[in-house]
Amino acid sequence: MPDPLDGAALRAALREAVADPARHPLLVALDFDGTLAPLQDDPQASRVLPDAVTALRALAAHPRTVRLALLSGRSMGDLHRLAEVPPGTVLIGSHGAERARVAEHGLDRAVMTLTDEQQDRLDGLGGEMQAVARGRDGVWVESKPAAVAVHTRMADPATAEAAERDALAVGGRLGSAVLHGKKVVEVSVLDADKGAALSALRAEIGAGAVLVAGDDVTDEHAFEAVAPEGLTLKVGAGPTSARFRVPEPQDVADLLADLAVALDEAAAG
Ligand SMILES: O=P(O)(O)OC[C@H]1O[C@H](O[C@H]2O[C@H](CO)[C@@H](O)[C@H](O)[C@H]2O)[C@H](O)[C@@H](O)[C@@H]1O
């Protein structure tokens, strides 16, 4: 796998896409934690960086050229509450299992339902993951509409490793999809991933080009779904199939701001 190119190379590639009407609309699909919002010990403290909020608003002023989406592992409730994004943005939550569109007031949302069998497995997962966390300092359980996540960011390394190993074992027995992200093991009773969700949205929109940015292993599904021509951006260190890399979320905000300027300039002729 070749080393990813830097942010300057992506900036140039984005400007080329803006200049070519055959590549419109450009779908901009962004991960939330670690990409738009710096990682936090407390997931409820996460917020989109102020420069990214401003840039996303500026991008939303060009709906014929750019479409915005968040592509997140967060539950839809969490994502809508925490992510400050403009109306028209598509929210894909629970790693693709939930989908909605931000409206002027509220959310246009498809209701997600589970079969009895899936609900039973989700209930079983909740109990087993609580047992994984019990007695382990800094390990805690997050319940989502179709998944259960075991968080280990606050635990010491040995405790985190043991909890993640046990959570993966539970996932192997009860899960339909098991994701091992940054200091989290998430087990879903649905077989969803960001790649399938992104492919569906891309086809619906008829996107001529796609920018997709993410920081975690779960974002690799999305990178692979738009390879080889997709403008794929890895945020931070770690192995990746993405074509481009930047160090941190502020660089993503800066790239989005530059894209907005390019769109303003193109619109002004
Ligand atoms: O796909 P994402 O938008 O990146 O969501 C993935 C998970 O994000 C959250 O956990 C991660 O961020 C937390 C806040 O910075 C951090 O404390 C945790 O260690 C990270 O794994 C969220 O809590 C999960 O539900 C998401 O699946």
Automatic annotation (TrEMBL):
Q: Which InterPro entries match?
A: HAD-like_sf (IPR036412), HAD-SF_hydro_IIB (IPR006379), HAD_sf (IPR023214), OTSB-like (IPR044651), Trehalose_PPase (IPR003337)
Gene3D superfamilies associated with the record = HAD superfamily/HAD-like (3.40.50.1000), Trehalose-6-phosphate phosphatase related protein, domain 2 (3.30.70.1020)
Species of the source = Cellulomonas triticagri
**Family indicated by similarity:** Belongs to the trehalose phosphatase family.
* Pfam families to which the protein is assigned, alphabetical: Trehalose_PPase
Q: What is this protein called?
A: Trehalose 6-phosphate phosphatase
Claim: Metal-binding is one of the keywords in the record: yes
**Keyword tags:** Hydrolase, Magnesium, Metal-binding
